[in-house]
Amino acid sequence: MAEEYPSNSNRAKNDKPAAPEKKVEAVVSGGAKTRKKSEAKKLADTFISEDASNVKNP
User: Which of 4, 7, 18, 22 has the greatest number of beta carbons closer than 10 A?
Assistant: First the structure.
């Protein structure tokens, strides 16, 4: 039965070899720009729920 479940001790966890670090590369070449929300979009987000279509369904 002991073979079915892995050990949960700290010693068993520390004996595992560490995974090599993944190489991270830039996705965007150049600077990325963020846009501010327009006043109309802010107003719509405030008063209109994202799940407004679910309100009418019982």
Answer: 7
